[in-house]
Amino acid sequence: MHRLLLALPFALLPLAAAQASDHDHDHDHALDSLDAHQHGAASLNVVLDGQALELELESPAMNLVGFEHAAESAADKAKVAAARSQLQNPQALFGLNAGDCSLRETALESPLFEDDEHEHEGHQGDETHGEHSEIHAHYQLDCKKPDELKQLNLAELFKRFPATTKIQVQLIGPNGQQGVELTPAKPGLDF
Fold first, then answer.
1. Residues spanned by the domain of 112
2. Does some domain include residue 35?
3. Per-residue pLDDT of the chain (191 residues; tens, 9 = 90+)
4. What domain count does the chain have?
5. 3-state secondary structure labels for all residues of the chain
C-alpha cells in the first residue's frame, strides 16, 4: 500500500501540469508555486485501494500550531502537544464516519515533535538556514466496508486548525483519480 501512496504524485502529475498551464500568465512562477511553503495552505494525498485507505497530510507548522520555531515556552509546548493529539485521530479530522475503518498505523513527523535536545538543535539549524518547519502526518486504515466510504470531509480539520485556509487534495479511489482544492466553505470531496 505504501508503494501506492508513493506513486500518487506521479499518477497525478498530468493533473498538476494542466493546473499549472491554466495559470500560464507566468508559467515559471506557477510551476515554482506547486512545491512552495505557503502559510494557510496544505496538501493531502488519499488512496483507497480495496479495504486499505492511506492518507498523507503535509502542512507548514504555522497552520497547525501557530509558529514554526522550536517550542521553548510552556504555552508553545502545550500547542504542539494539542496539535499532535488531534492529528492522532484521522477519522474525526477527515470525516471518515463510514466504511467501518480502523486505524492500523500513524506516523507524525516534525522537528517540533522531537525531544527538547533535538528541538534545540533543529531550532539552531532553522535559524542558520532559514528553513520552515513542516508537519507530516501519514495514516494507514483498514476499512471493512470500503464501498460505504462516500466522502472525505475536512470540515473538522478546518475547524480545529483555523489557520489552514486551503488544502490541495489528490485522491485515487474507486472512481479514478481527482484533484481539488478544499476550503472551509467547500470542505468535502466524494470518493
1. 2-29+40-190
2. no
3. 454 554 554 444 444 444 433 433 333 333 333 345 688 999 999 999 999 999 999 999 999 999 989 999 999 999 999 999 999 999 999 999 899 999 999 999 999 998 433 444 444 433 323 457 999 999 999 999 999 999 999 999 999 999 999 999 999 998 899 999 999 999 999 98
4. 1
5. CHHHHHHHHHHCHHHHHHHHHHCHHHHHHHHHHCCCCCCCEEEEEEEEECCEEEEEEEEEHHHHHCCCCCCCCHHHHHHHHHHHHHHCCHHHHCCCCCCCEEEEEEEEECHHHCCHHHHHHHHHHHHHHCCCCEEEEEEEEEECCHHHCCEEECHHHHHHCCCCCEEEEEEEECCEEEEEEECCCCCEEEC
pTM attached to this predicted model: 0.76
34 falls within a domain: no
Residue 91 CB-half CA count within 13 A: 13
In whole angstroms, what is the distance from residue 98 CA to residue 162 CA? 25
